[in-house]
């Protein structure tokens, strides 16, 4: 603490005071006794001593005739650029000492709009720390935003806002995907990179006589994978959500002999609503109708030792990586060697997410999607998986060998694999007639299309490879 700093040597960093706050200080302030006086928090910025906190106390002390006050140096790593901005704005109003605030005292309400509101706006527009999102933060944000295929507006709007805040000009395509084009050094040959943000889900197929819901699945998975999972009904009629659980009709072992053996299928599985309903009429009265989307509880968890669990790591891990790289390229002013289209697709789980919106100049197409794990698979949760062939056939040989070479030269741990029952947006693009070199890679996802898991090591390896690829030269 620096004892007794001269009051008039301090530059205020705010240009309004609240009459209410001043009254509150006057109620307890005793100029004869500073033993309980909290020191004024100050900071040296550009050679000037700035008041960080304590403008009201400073003003009252000055009014009471004091010339010096106890101060403390602010050691915390605050957003000093923001304070610089506020100080400049204060000076611009002719305020260079606390005495100048005499004509800037406002009733509480005006203080809140003209000062607090001003700070909020300036902070959000120019100094927001929003951009400190890292890949794991994006994974959490994306997996906890419901987006079954066909119901992806909310998550796509988020991507639009987020990339706009980064400084890009995203385009929402008619079918609901988001395209962010980043101009590169070479604008004649383009790259296209995609991840999908639609997930598995379900739709209300019918309302049963007992008020429960029959489901129709959206995407390729088995009923076993969702038994006992909590879910959300997105009621189209009201715009509201209703919670429930997906269960076998014959769940209670106290009543049903075949609780364990009955087939998990559309006829036997249903949604139990968290509402007091026992008839179809009562359920309909909630606004629920055939066609309402059902999203699954993602149960996103990141363990202390780095495992990431969630229902929808496929393919939100990859989308998170793309968002994070976009952020880094913008913040660090990195110019990519080729104009690159970042496409967040919304129809992959039903087979045609990224088969459109491909610029005629695109010659390389990279799908970033989950690596499949299981018997005969080399893919694991700690490396990046490069797909050599899936259900659609082999991927472009030279391009995948380019990816392998990047891993080798940069020490990125990787695995090569065939995904037997799998198609990607890259293969969908090929089927749709795109004449490009296509490749597929992604983080290793355990128990895919069920309660999935990966590890931060796999996310890291995948991000490093995607980054290395986007900054690399094209193969001939
Ligand atoms: Zn996927």
TrEMBL record:
Keywords: Aminopeptidase, Hydrolase, Metal-binding, Protease. GO terms for molecular function: aminopeptidase activity. It comes from the Bacteria. The keyword Metal-binding applies. The keyword Protease applies. Coiled coil: none annotated. InterPro entries: ParB/Sulfiredoxin_sf (IPR036086), Peptidase_M42 (IPR008007), Peptidase_M42_aminopept (IPR051464), Peptidase_M42_dom2 (IPR023367). CDD domains: M42_glucanase_like. SUPFAM superfamilies: Aminopeptidase/glucanase lid domain (SSF101821), ParB/Sulfiredoxin (SSF110849), Zn-dependent exopeptidases (SSF53187). Belongs to the peptidase M42 family. This is Aminopeptidase FrvX. It comes from Streptococcus rupicaprae.
């Amino acid at each position: 603490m620096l004892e007794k700093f001269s009051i008039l040597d301090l530059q205020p960093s705010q240009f309004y005071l609240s009459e209410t706050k001043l009254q509150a200080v006057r109620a307890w302030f005793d100029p004869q006794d500073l033993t309980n006086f909290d020191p004024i928090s100050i900071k040296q910025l550009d050679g000037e001593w700035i008041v960080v906190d304590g403008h009201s106390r400073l003003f009252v002390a000055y009014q009471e005739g004091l010339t010096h006050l106890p101060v403390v140096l602010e050691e915390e790593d605050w957003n000093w650029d923001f304070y610089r901005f506020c100080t400049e704005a204060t000076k611009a109003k002719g305020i260079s000492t606390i005495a100048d605030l005499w004509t800037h005292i406002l009733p509480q309400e005006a203080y809140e709009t003209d000062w607090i509101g001003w700070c909020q706006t300036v902070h959000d527009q120019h100094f927001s720390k929003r951009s400190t999102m890292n890949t794991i933060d994006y994974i959490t944000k994306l997996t906890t935003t419901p987006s079954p295929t066909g119901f992806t507006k909310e998550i796509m709007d988020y991507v639009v806002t987020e990339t706009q805040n980064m400084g890009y000009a995203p385009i929402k395509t008619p079918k609901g995907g988001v395209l962010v084009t980043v101009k590169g050094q070479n604008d004649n040959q383009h790259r296209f990179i995609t991840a999908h943000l639609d997930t598995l889900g379900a739709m209300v197929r019918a309302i049963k006589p007992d008020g429960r819901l029959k489901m129709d699945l959206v995407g390729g998975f088995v009923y076993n994978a969702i038994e006992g999972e909590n879910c959300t009904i997105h009621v189209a009629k009201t715009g509201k959500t209703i919670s429930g659980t997906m269960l076998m009709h014959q769940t209670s072992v106290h009543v049903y002999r075949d609780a364990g053996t009955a087939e998990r299928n559309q006829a036997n599985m249903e949604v139990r609503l968290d509402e007091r309903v026992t008839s179809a009429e009562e359920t309909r009265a909630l606004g629920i109708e055939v066609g309402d989307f059902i999203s699954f509880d993602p149960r996103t968890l990141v363990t202390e030792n780095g495992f990431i669990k969630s229902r929808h790591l496929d393919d939100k891990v990859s989308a998170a990586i793309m968002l994070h790289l976009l952020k880094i390229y913008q913040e660090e002013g990195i110019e990519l060697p080729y104009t690159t289209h970042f496409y967040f697709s919304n129809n992959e789980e039903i087979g045609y997410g990224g088969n459109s919106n491909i610029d005629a100049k695109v010659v390389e197409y990279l799908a970033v999607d989950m690596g499949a794990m299981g018997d005969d698979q080399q893919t694991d949760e700690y490396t990046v998986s490069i797909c050599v062939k899936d259900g659609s056939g082999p991927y472009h040989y030279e391009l995948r060998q380019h990816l392998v070479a990047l891993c080798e030269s940069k020490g990125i741990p990787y695995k090569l694999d065939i995904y037997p029952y799998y198609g990607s947006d890259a293969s969908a693009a090929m089927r749709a007639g795109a004449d490009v070199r296509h490749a597929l890679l992604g983080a290793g996802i355990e128990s895919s299309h069920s309660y999935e898991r990966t590890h931060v090591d796999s996310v890291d390896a995948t991000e490093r490879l995607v980054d290395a690829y986007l900054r690399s030269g094209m193969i001939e």
